[in-house]
Design goal:
mainly alpha
Length: 112
């Protein structure tokens, strides 16, 4: 995996923090962490979008952030675990993985 995709994955990791922070932050340090997570997340996505196809970057970013947020809510905040949610997250991640793999093939073909 190249450094640009790593930026997307790290940005998605921080996206989970700021999305959860928007719901659960209720004091200074919670809001500070949420704001810092927003800045880091979007900064990394902007950097990745300069070198990778923006549509694919955004789809991967949002898909991973959504899956991470739902799983975090289940694991840490008592959200009910439903089979339907897990199956839909797996479907979402399969689509995101497919987009990433397809983009990699297109880039390799373009370099030839």
């Amino acid at each position: 995996m190249n450094a640009h995709w790593m930026k997307v994955f790290i940005g998605a990791f921080f996206e989970v923090f700021w999305v959860i922070g928007l719901k659960h932050a209720n004091e200074f340090w919670g809001w500070t962490g949420t704001i810092l997570s927003i800045i880091v997340s979007f900064y990394l996505i902007v950097l990745a979008g300069r070198k990778l196809p923006v549509g694919t970057v955004y789809a991967v970013f949002v898909g991973m952030g959504t899956a991470g947020t739902v799983l975090s809510e289940i694991m840490f905040f008592g959200e009910p675990l439903k089979l339907e949610k897990i199956l839909l997250i797996l479907l979402l991640l399969a689509g995101v993985l497919g987009l990433k793999l397809l983009t990699k093939e297109e880039q390799e073909g373009a370099d030839s």
